[in-house]
Design brief:
The chain is α+β, with helices and mostly antiparallel strands. It has a single domain, classed as Winged helix-like DNA-binding domain superfamily/Winged helix DNA-binding domain (Arc Repressor Mutant, subunit A). The strands form two sheets. Strands 2-1-6 form a three-stranded antiparallel beta sheet, with no helix packed on it. Strand 4 and strand 5 form a beta hairpin. The longest helix is centred in the middle third of the chain and has 12 residues. The two termini are 14 Å apart. 11% of the residues are buried. The model has no long low-confidence stretch (mean pLDDT 92).
Length: 76
């Protein structure tokens, strides 16, 4: 599955990443609320610009990037 983050810019996400995105789509969350595996997944998705990351004094807060759009698989 691809997610469009800007015009002509698409990134690939796996099914597990898509499930994680759908689970945390409605609200922001902190890294301390996640398991270590989920923290790594949130960090990787933030590196792909799917989540936005805000550094707090003792934690990191994540929220879904509102400018993204989920697109179907593309054939090239």
């Amino acid at each position: 599955m691809y997610i469009q983050i800007a015009p002509r810019v698409k990134v690939y996400v796996t099914d597990s990443d898509l499930d994680f995105i759908n689970k945390h789509r409605q609200h922001s969350f902190k890294a301390s609320q996640l398991t270590p595996e989920q923290q790594d997944q949130a960090k990787r998705l933030a590196d792909k610009a799917i989540f936005v990351r805000k550094k707090l004094d003792t934690d990191t807060q994540y929220a879904l990037n509102r400018r993204i759009r989920i697109v179907n698989d593309l054939k090239k």
